[in-house]
Amino acid sequence: MPGNHDKDWNNKLVQGTFIVEQPITVLKIDGRKYVLSHFPMADWQSMSHESIHLHGHIHSEGSLYNEMNRMQGLYRYDVGVDANGYSPVSMEEILAWFDGVECRGRVKWKDWVDETGDKRVRRKLAGL
Question: How far is the C-alpha of 21 from the C-alpha of 31, rounded, in Å?
């Protein structure tokens, strides 16, 4: 899935090497929807029905972002290598990550900011 720095996907030298998906791709595997995109989304198709949103882009360094999503019942997971010990993540690992988590299907922004302590977000919210 091309990201914001991937400009040469149509280059003849790499054609046939990669399968290039649309910017937002929805897969259905074993009855569950997976919504894939390079960027994280606040709202995605079937999010209130346990679809899992897989994305990268944010370079979240460690598991805090994914832990916050799980804690809030958001089936959203940063599959970027920097969030996962510089290793790929299998579908089995992603399903196990959310096993037993009640899907709440919505982002609770105030809780998110309070828990992560993201001062940039706090400043932006305070200025509204």
Answer: 21
Query: What pTM does this model have?
Result: 0.77
Q: Are 125 and 113 contacting, i.e. CB atoms less than 8 angstroms apart?
A: yes
32: three-class secondary structure by DSSP: strand
Between these two residues, 27 and 116, which has the higher pLDDT value? 27
Q: How far are the Cα atoms of 14, 49, 68 from residue 104, in angstroms, in the given order? A: 41, 9, 13
Q: Of 38, 52, 47, which is closest to residue 106 (Cα–Cα)?
A: 47
Half-sphere exposure at residue 104, Cβ-oriented, CA atoms within 13 angstroms: 11
Show me where the domains of the chain are located: 24-126
Mind giving me the DSSP string for 43-68?
S-TTGGGT-EEEE-SS---SSHHHHH
**Cβ atoms within 10 Å of 23's Cβ, excluding its own:** 11
Q: Two tokens at 27?
A: 């897969």
Residue showing tokens 């510089």? 86
Mean pLDDT of the chain: 83
